[in-house]
Amino acid sequence: GWAGEGPGASGKNRHVCHAAARLEMGSLWEEFNRLGTEMIVTKAGRWEPERPGGLQRWGGHPLPTPSLRRRMFPTFQVKLSGLDPLADYVLLMDFIPLDDKRYRWGWGNGGGGPDLGVLSPSLPCRYAFHSSSWLAAGRAEPAAPGRVHFHPDSPAKGAQWMRQIVSFDKLKLTNNLLDDNGHIILNSMHRYQPRFHVVFVDPRHDSERFAHQNFKSFSFPETQFMAVTAYQNHRITQLKIASNPFAKGFRDGDPEP
Amino acid sequence: GWAGEGPGASGKNRHVCHAAARLEMGSLWEEFNRLGTEMIVTKAGRWEPERPGGLQRWGGHPLPTPSLRRRMFPTFQVKLSGLDPLADYVLLMDFIPLDDKRYRWGWGNGGGGPDLGVLSPSLPCRYAFHSSSWLAAGRAEPAAPGRVHFHPDSPAKGAQWMRQIVSFDKLKLTNNLLDDNGHIILNSMHRYQPRFHVVFVDPRHDSERFAHQNFKSFSFPETQFMAVTAYQNHRITQLKIASNPFAKGFRDGDPEP
DNA sequence: CCCTTTTCACCTAGGTGGTAAGAT
DNA sequence: ATCTTACCACCTAGGTGAAAAGGG
């Protein structure tokens, strides 16, 4: 549903104070969230394929460093309303740690010693599969550089943003702290909350003075996830295979189309 | 090389008067031009594939009407210089008829009557293959609606445009007069000259008054072509197959990589 | 007859999780 | 023992000309 109000809309510029965002594919997000959403993060770029004659550009663009870094699935996409059709806006996303813990997936006690892992109070015990579950396993790694992802159509008029669903399908995740492709850097085995920001492009000369009034932020709790380098919860794997068209090769039968 | 000056740079706004454009892949364009470049134009959209559950959007964007309409090959791409790095520019292309004739590909005289076809004076006789060649065959069809193609990154700063090669690889050609996808409409069997325009986005309130000063146009003669629905000159077909990566499936041996 | 449209196999390009090997 | 990486088969998505079919 429509949701996500930032910390009080008071004092906001009139160009953003009525902005609203509805999360798309909400039921799919909730289905994942009930199991404990996991998102793959990877480090390596795609192995540079053999280029005839050492060709490094094609179609006029430098060949993008082919990247195996992963998209999010489900894709974060919203339907916007309440923008000024004629004003310019920038849309962007960032990711904030949900807590200061790192996690592990297991049985709680791997061997002889006392069980140091505990289910985080913020993690419902349903985030489990058979006898395995997510267990807190110490303090979080130092936060990775807090990158943001600008929607590639930014800036654009409010009318353009409201015309159709806005999709962040170009957003990619990595665990490479030295990533130089502008991707979002996350720590594996840590939990994150995606955030979405609508920023009014203020044409006033001293617009910096009003920066705090010119944006509005949205947070959808059902989109929180655990960053992993390989899926841990087998139910998550199966739901990804069932719902992501690119994973169709791993489907067995012909259930719900 | 650097080329294409419009009709006199005098009276141009200082933001465009020093603009210069170098055609990329010039030797490939010239190789095609020596044979008489042909570009495919098509009418139909791609047959709408079966969508599970009637899905009409994916990744948040409405599924683009899948289109079989064809790109240009070679791709029109230029390297820009002389722009104001901090000013905004719009880049666009259009296509102007090279003459008022329609053409046919053949032997000049198909049967008993007198040969009405003549090689156009503007068509070098080398635009021929074996005994076939391009022959003028009457007056041109009424010109199709004169559409323009805006580079999708428009508008952007001069610095952005000059940073790397600007490619019009998204540009598509059609012979469908009723096309509603914004593609470039051309008449088959007619000759065209692509034009490239750099437009300074004038921030002045009464910028319309200066519209004629705020753009600069470039025309590269080696990019002229005949619009066709199927290739006529077999040498053109072979050069397309040899140089377009998407046609690799039709290559025979392993010549010049 | 000449031109156009449709359909097809074969590519490029790149997004999936599986799997086995590697790292700590 | 647990987490990470590299490589793979198998998909989606769509850009090619060939060849056959259609149309005036």
From TrEMBL, chains A, B:
First-listed, main subcellular location of the protein, grouped into a coarse class: nucleus
UniProt xrefs under InterPro entries: p53-like_TF_DNA-bd_sf, T-box_DNA-bd, T-box_sf, TF_T-box, TF_T-box_CS
A GO cellular-component term linked to this record: nucleus
PROSITE patterns: TBOX_2 (PS01264), TBOX_3 (PS50252)
Record GO biological process: cell fate specification; positive regulation of DNA-templated transcription
Domain T-box per the UniProt entry, residue ranges: 23-252
UniProt keyword annotations, A-Z: DNA-binding, Nucleus, Transcription, Transcription regulation
Any single Pfam family the record assigns to this protein: T-box
MF term (GO), any: DNA-binding transcription factor activity, RNA polymerase II-specific
Localization per record: Nucleus
Record-given protein name: TBX10 factor
